[in-house]
Design brief:
There is one protein chain. With 629 residues, the protein is α/β, with parallel strands linked by helices. It folds into 3 domains: 239 residues, P-loop containing nucleotide triphosphate hydrolases (Rossmann fold, 3-Layer(aba) Sandwich); 79 residues, no CATH class; 261 residues, Rossmann fold (3-Layer(aba) Sandwich). The strands form 4 sheets. The protein has a 6-stranded mixed β-sheet with strand order 6-7-8-3-9-10, sandwiched between helices. A hairpin with a 2-residue loop joins β9 and β10. α18 packs parallel to α21 and α19 packs across α21. The longest helix has 18 residues. It is globular, with a radius of gyration of 26 Å. It starts with a strand and ends in a 16-residue tail after the last helix.
Length: 629
């Protein structure tokens, strides 16, 4: 039986599109979906890829009756979604998890939130209890059953949202970027659950994702672009065509990218769709006489970079920082438990850790959104806790945050904060007003000319045309444009320190690259220190000079990505993963091939080419490989 079928479906959010639907040739540009034909068999696992704004989320909402098409027909498990009487039955059978968990949280206590769906479809009370247990265990949140939903981190909320749909045990589960805010272990756990439900219980799965590695788990992949399905096939076929994917602003998995870069340098390797296959491909080219030879370098001590910043002025000095949410209440949560960290001026610094490790709580202290005196004095435990005998120190950009007399307004002008969903920081009627707000708030006497010049500078810095967007409503922009406007509203004051909490989460691959490139340009031009919180280990390896690993409100380790990711047991202890290049390095080492790199893709390819040059596998290679590798 078919789980889902679209027949020539068109959809538009605007009334103009609805009125013009009889003239498709002239009106198609106003449609989010344009002539979609798609079918999905019951029990099938389909991954949906596409750039931001390609129509993926609209496609998902049409699939469970939250939206109705302007034209065409949608059938769900034999039920016509165009007939209103069928919508309740369709929504019972099709569960959807949205990208932002805050949009689907309905109760203040976790177990009540998960029970909401089953209660509304008439599940027996005893069965609801069993389903809550199952769902919480599936997403690794059993210990949070009685927690308040408002005090959960973004990633924890996402797990609860997924659990709420799992508790319904739908016949078709749709996940709309629902793992975007999870840490690597959380993503793996959720995907393991989804695969188990698909394979063992026959639940159909539609996975909308920007992670190629997740899409590789599907039976079939479809690619959307500008409201159309432009590619369809098994994952291996789709991800072989790097050039076509790039035209749709997408990327192949990292293993495939490495394989293609090696082939550009005359190395004969197959597509590395996973770690083991790529390791096998490289290892077979290395003669036995080269294997098991130890190489020097990439130790776990201080890198040259770390030694170079030893005497540099500090942007952040933090010692013995504690913080408690809901103190002296049954919901008391110790978010920070004695954090010690120094960040030097000029660094591009990363903060990593599992969901709920205290990362967001820590960075919110850096511009006093969470104030230290409250946390330290009101909630100070008994003195027998020796960790509290040492005074707390928190100095940021020269400001002492332990001093009540500190000018926090001046601090916030120097320390800009961009939150997990920066587009939710937008509020004004026009882009100009939104970006100008911070500057007017900090500088009451700013002239109109200076204001216009500053807003123009901020918008052009984030890659937006000032004249084209200044008078538009920020809410009419695309998702990527909204995020850029939100960042512009923070950098308009030219802060000395820029703090970003998951700045690239939920963006398509090209969007992520553009945001990181933007941050590096800002860092190089005028911003002294950039601090990013991220769950993407490859992002940290490729961009950060140093990083700190948070776990259970403490810091496990601080160092360069090269040093940190070499400590695999520590990374595992923190509930994280290592970059793809670290995984392939480990797999090759087990096969007797040792490649030492800094875990960036470019350096891994360079070091691999240098090794393979000695085997004759790559004729005509220059020393260290091609410069464009």
């Amino acid at each position: 039986m078919q789980a889902l079928k679209f027949e020539n479906v068109y959809f538009s959010y605007s009334e103009d599109g609805a009125e013009a639907k009889d003239d498709w040739f002239t009106a198609e540009s106003s449609f989010c979906l344009q002539g979609i034909d798609f079918s999905m068999e019951e029990g099938e696992f389909v991954a949906v890829l596409g750039h931001n704004g390609s129509g993926k989320s609209t496609f998902a909402r049409l699939s469970n009756g939250l939206l109705s098409p302007k034209s065409g027909k949608i059938t769900v498990f034999g039920l016509d979604a165009g007939e209103e009487k069928n919508l309740f039955d369709i929504r019972k059978q099709v569960g959807i998890v949205f990208q932002n968990p805050d949009n689907q949280t309905v109760a203040s206590i976790v177990e009540d939130d998960i029970a909401f769906g089953p209660e509304n479809v008439g599940i027996a009370r005893e069965e609801i209890g069993k389903r809550i247990d199952f769902a919480l265990q599936a997403v690794g949140m059993s210990d949070f059953r009685t927690s308040t939903t408002t005090r959960l981190s973004g990633g924890q909320k996402q797990r609860i949202a997924i659990a709420g749909v799992l508790a319904l045990k739908p016949r078709l589960m749709i996940l709309d970027e629902s793992t975007a805010m999870l840490d690597p272990r959380g993503r793996k756990e959720v995907m393991d659950v989804v695969r188990k439900l698909n394979k063992e219980e026959g639940i159909s799965v539609m996975l909308i994702t920007h992670f190629p590695e997740e899409a590789m788990l599907a039976d079939r992949v479809i690619v959307m672009n500008e409201g159309r399905i432009v590619m369809s096939g098994v994952p291996e076929e789709i991800f072989k065509d790097e050039k076509e994917l790039e035209t749709y602003k997408l990327k192949t998995p990292r293993g495939v990218q490495i394989s293609q870069k090696l082939r550009l340098n005359s190395v004969s390797v197959g597509d590395g769709f996973d770690v083991e296959s790529l390791a096998d491909e490289i290892a077979r080219l290395v003669p036995d006489c080269v294997k098991n030879q130890k190489k020097n370098g990439a130790g776990v001590g201080l890198s040259e970079y770390e030694e170079s910043i030893a005497g540099v002025k500090k942007s952040v000095v933090c010692k013995n920082l504690h913080y408690v949410y809901n103190p002296k209440s049954p919901f008391s949560t110790h978010a920070l438990n004695g954090v010690d960290l120094e960040i030097s001026e000029g660094e591009f610094f990363g903060i990593i850790g599992h969901t709920g490790s205290g990362k967001s709580t820590f960075v919110q202290h850096l511009n006093a959104l969470l104030k230290l005196p409250t946390a330290e004095k009101k909630y100070k435990p008994k003195k027998k806790n020796k960790s509290f005998l040492n005074p707390t120190v928190l100095r940021v950009s020269g400001f002492d945050l332990t001093d009540k007399k500190t000018d926090f307004k001046a601090l916030r002008q120097k320390v800009g904060m961009v939150f997990q969903y920066p587009e939710y920081q937008l509020f004004a009627e026009t882009v100009f007003e939104d970006v100008a707000f911070g500057l007017k708030n900090f500088q009451k006497d700013v002239s109109q000319e200076e204001l216009e010049n500053s807003v123009r500078f901020a918008l052009e810095t984030v890659g937006l045309d000032y004249d084209q967007v200044k008078n538009r409503s920020p809410f009419d922009l695309s998702g990527g444009q909204k995020r850029r406007v939100a960042i512009a509203g923070v950098i308009v004051t030219k802060p000395e320190i820029l703090v970003l909490d998951e700045p690239a989460a939920g963006l398509d691959p090209l969007g992520k690259e553009e945001i990181m490139s933007l941050l590096h340009r800002i860092h190089d031009d005028w911003c002294k220190t950039v601090i990013i919180v991220s769950h993407d280990m490859d992002e940290i390896a490729e961009n950060c000079s140093r990083a700190a690993i948070f776990s259970e409100g403490k810091i496990l380790s601080v160092g360069s990505p090269t040093c940190l990711f070499a400590k695999e047991s520590l990374i595992e202890e923190a509930g994280l993963d290592v970059p793809f290049t670290a995984k392939i390095t480990r797999a090759l080492k087990e096969k007797g091939v040792e490649i030492v790199s800094d875990f960036t893709m470019a350096d891994f390819v360079k070091q691999t080419l240098a090794l393979l040059k000695t085997t004759g596998a790559g004729t005509g290679l220059t020393e260290g490989g091609r410069s464009d590798a």
